[in-house]
Structure formats: C-alpha cells, structure tokens
Amino acid sequence: MKHFTKTLIVLFVGAVAFSCSNKELEGRIAKLEGKVAELETKNGVRPTTATTPSAAAKAPEVKPDGPLPSMVFTEESFDFGTINEGDVVDHVFTFTNTGDAPLIISSATATCGCTVPDWPREPIAVGAEGQIKVQFNSRNKPGIQNKTVTITANTYPKINRLSIKANVTKADNPS
User: Fold this and answer.
1) In terms of C-beta density within 10 A (0-12 exposed, 13-18 middle, 19 or more buried), how is residue 174 classed?
2) pLDDT tens per residue across span 33-84
3) Which domain holds residue 83?
4) What is the pTM of this model?
5) Is residue 175 part of a domain?
6) Is residue 26 a part of any domain in this protein?
7) Which ranges of the chain would DSSP assign to H, the alpha helix?
8) Strands 143-153 and 159-169
9) Per-residue pLDDT tens over the stretch 107-129
10) 41 φ, ψ to 5°?
C-alpha cells in the first residue's frame, strides 16, 4: 500500500508539472489529490507530516539538534462548501509556534495557480500566533476541487500541508 501511495504521488507531481490550464488535467489532479488524502488517512499518515515526493526518494529527514520551532494549526483543512464558478474565496489558517525557537517559513506553495497562499515572511516568536491566508479562484474549475498548500519551515519535519476543498457549481454559459 505504501508503494501504491508513492506511485500516486509521483503521478500527481508529474501531472502538475505540465500545466494547470488543461481542464482534463485539473480533473485528474483533483481525483489524485483526493485519493492520496484518502490513502494517507487510511494508513494513519498525517498529510501535514508527510515528506515531499522528491525527499521520499532521498535519505529520511534527520531531526536536527537543538531547540526547534513547531507549528500547531487550529485546523489543517477547510471546506468552502458549494460555491459558484468564478467565485474567488479565501480562508485564513491560524497556527501557533509551540516550539522552543523562532519559526521561519521559507515557502508556501500550492498544487495549482488557482490557489494562492500568503504567509508571514518575518519570524514567529515562541508562543506567538501566525496566519496563512489561502485564496482559491474557481474560474474554469467546475466540480469538486481539492487543493493542497505545502509549507516549508525550519520545523521538524520541514514540510507541513494544509488542504482546501470546494464544490464548484458550473456557471451557465449564454448561447
């Protein structure tokens, strides 16, 4: 099952590498994201602690010595419910640095250009809160959408993931 999950992730990354503008490809990506999330949940793997596919092929991540920051989110996924095609919606994910060192987020990336994360560029002190705003543009994205935001920080593990979901109602096209 672990090999199957890795295969799905590799296929997903390969599909994303081509383009987000292809509607058929977007549908495949959404299905793969859903399957990966389902398999991770089934196998007891938290999506926020999984490594990236390229890192999985390398040696396992080693916990660094010394004090480390830790990101604890109030929620790791959000469902926008049913929205209309063309709506631009956003959600703010709040986290606290519960570690022993300042938290520095080096990047936050999404699976598609239709999803844009905005994260704090300054260090988050121990015990302080921070926010990551995720904006989703549903233009040309009818159907169920599952998007993942990958956060890279000076935590252990380095990768954390957030997810958003929406059921996008297709817009009526005038004839």
Assistant:
1) exposed
2) 666 666 655 555 554 444 445 545 567 888 888 899 999 999 999 999 999 9
3) 2-57+64-169
4) 0.67
5) no
6) yes
7) 2-18, 23-42, 53-57
8) antiparallel
9) 999 999 999 999 999 999 999 99
10) -65, -45
